[in-house]
Amino acid sequence: MSNVRRILLALGMVLGVIAAGSIGYVVLGFGVLDAVYQTVTTITTVGFRELHPLDPAGKIFTIVLILAGVGVALYAFGVVLETLVEGHLRRDFGRRRMERNITRMTGHTIVCGWGRVGRAVGGYLSGQGTDVVVVDLNPERVAETPYPALIGDVTDDEVLRRAGLMRARALVAAINTDAENVYVTLSARALRPDLVIVARARTEESESKLLRAGATRVVNPQRIGGQRIAAAALQPNVVEFLDVVMHDGSLEFRLEEVSILAGSRLAGRTLHEASVGETTGALVLALRDADGQFLANPPVQTPIGAGHVLIAIGTETQLTALQQAAHRAG
């Protein structure tokens, strides 16, 4: 039985005893108000004198009413107290357990704001096997999230630290207002200069401000949504293929970015010399250099350097082999 039903049952039993006692005293000759008053003072053991003298039948009825009424009243009080204490303890223990879990996390993503955008981001990250920590100021929205979450103002540095900012892989600023996203970006960048920060922008004017505040990438959902709709109208098969590769997971192949670390066996070689396709089986679709410039369909003579990022397609096994080659010392 739920706690609410237990409380309603206990209160119903108390009202039932009061009604039965009042009827009994009315039968014994009391007025309606006097009967209710006498019943309440009896079952609550207040100890006031009887309003009217009681004959033997009235005394026996009062004894029975005391035994039954006091028992029911104590039971109702116990149920209410237990529910309140249990609820507070459960919330307290749950919050402590969640905070302990967050302190053990590393490489997770912090999602600031649990609105429609935040929910979509959290669902995708979780589907990719990434741990998610949600921070929102609204307790009701925090209660809905299936991920570890904190109630707090994300513009507060201490809240960000409690969310594991110093150990996080990335932060997503998905609050409803651009001003708050700018503030969060500034705070997170000051605490973690190396953190990947992706910020949501509602207006085009805010995009440059978010970039100046320190965002790694700024996303305008409205503009991207419009471009996606247009692309789906013109090239539906291309869009569907990218959806499957990036989000669906039903295909064996997927896209992934691979960063080239200094000292890896790929650094300092060309694509041909590294034999990326032959040794790993992955196909390099593009290369991004240290200046952020993309080179699509790079020739085999393209040199690979530390800090470059390869955009590759392949199976999980092939992409894992490419990751290992990009990170392993030559």
Question: Could you describe the 3D structure shown?
Answer:
This protein has 3 domains: 3-100, Helix Hairpins, CATH 1.10.287; 106-219, 3-Layer(aba) Sandwich (Rossmann fold), CATH 3.40.50; 252-327, 2-Layer Sandwich (Alpha-Beta Plaits). It has helices spanning 3-27, 32-43, 56-103, 116-127, 139-144, 157-162, 178-191, 204-213, 221-234, 236-248, 271-274, 276-280, 316-327; strands at 109-112, 132-136, 149-151, 170-173, 196-200, 217-219, 254-259, 269-270, 283-288, 294-296, 303-304, 309-314. The mean pLDDT is 85. Strands 3-2-1-4-5-6 form a 6-stranded parallel sheet, with helices on both faces. The protein has a 4-stranded antiparallel sheet with strand order 7-12-9-10. α7 packs parallel to α8. α5 links the parallel β2 and β3 (149-151). The chain is α/β, with parallel strands linked by helices and 330 residues long. The protein has 13 helices and 12 strands.
Tally of helical segments: 13
Instruction: Indicate the overall shape.
Output: rod-shaped
**Mean pLDDT, nearest integer?**
85
Number of strands: 12
Content-based structural category: alpha/beta
* Strand residues, percent: 5-15%
Amino-to-carboxy terminus distance: 65 Å
Low-confidence stretches: none
Question: In total, how many domains does the architecture comprise?
Answer: 3
Percent helix range: 40-55%
Give the topology.
Layout: H1 3-27, H2 32-43, H3 56-103, E1 109-112, H4 116-127, E2 132-136, H5 139-144, E3 149-151, H6 157-162, E4 170-173, H7 178-191, E5 196-200, H8 204-213, E6 217-219, H9 221-234, H10 236-248, E7 254-259, E8 269-270, H11 271-274, H12 276-280, E9 283-288, E10 294-296, E11 303-304, E12 309-314, H13 316-327
Parallel strand pairs: 1-2, 1-4, 2-3, 4-5, 5-6
Antiparallel strand pairs: 7-12, 8-11, 9-10, 9-12
Helix pairs in contact: 1-2, 1-3, 7-8, 9-10
